[in-house]
Design goal:
Layout: H1 3-10, E1 16-22, E2 31-37, H2 55-68, E3 71-77, H3 79-85, H4 87-100, E4 108-112, E5 123-126, H5 134-157, H6 163-166, H7 172-181, H8 192-207
Helix pairs in contact: 2-5, 3-4, 7-8
Length: 208
């Protein structure tokens, strides 16, 4: 998990930010990115891609990461931006915002699969980077914990959809609620299942 970091440390690059996003796949809610700068030679036991960890493990590790990090930051793109830009571009913009939120920019950025746009900071996009770089994995954990909390709050605001459980992903329960209740303002209208549910809702209203 430190191969990429060690290579950079040996070249004298000491301020490395790992960045990753979560929430590209769900039908609702924002896409969230986190960026993390860890100290040189820092190794945190248990850090892995957020999807490989349980919620309890992520929460415990997030506390450790925040405590040990030199700096960390979050960035996001709203549902409106996702619908306007498309999810790929919105994900990349969320990563850029996380990097730009640092008071002092890092010397180098390691990202998970996607290049961070509109930055002059040297970077490396690593396929499956959240499983290969501790810095990226740490970012994925912070992003996931933060987005899950956002979706819990949206679950309280829009009861009946189960956001607090499925986090907006296309589960059977979510699809059933979407077809029954119609889309909320936090659903991504550019995603086909949401578009279809909106059309069903309009059709029901017209028939009533």
């Amino acid at each position: 998990m430190l191969t990429h970091e060690r290579e950079l440390w040996q070249r004298g690059v000491l301020v490395i930010a790992g960045v990753d996003e979560v929430g590209a796949g769900p039908l609702a809610g924002p896409v969230v990115a986190a960026a993390v700068i860890l100290p040189v030679a820092c190794s945190i036991a248990g850090v892995d891609a957020s999807k490989r960890l349980t919620a309890r493990q992520r929460q415990r590790l997030a506390r450790i990461i925040r405590r040990r990090a030199v700096a960390y930051a979050l960035g996001s793109c709203s549902v409106d931006e996702i619908d306007r830009l498309n999810i790929l571009q919105a994900s990349r913009q969320a990563m850029r915002r996380a990097i730009e939120a640092f008071a002092v920019p890092p010397q180098f950025v390691l990202s998970d699969a996607r290049q961070v746009p509109d930055t002059t900071i040297p970077q490396r996009a690593i396929v499956h980077g959240d499983a290969l770089s501790q810095s990226i994995a740490a970012a994925s954990i912070l992003a996931k914990v933060h987005r899950d909390r956002l979706m819990e709050r949206l679950g309280a605001r829009y009861p009946g959809y189960g956001f607090e459980q499925h986090r907006g992903y296309c589960t059977a329960r979510h699809m059933a609620a979407l077809k029954r209740l119609g889309p909320t303002p936090v659903h991504r209208r550019s995603f086909a299942p949401v578009t279809e549910a909106a059309e069903l809702t309009i059709d029901r209203v017209m028939r009533a």
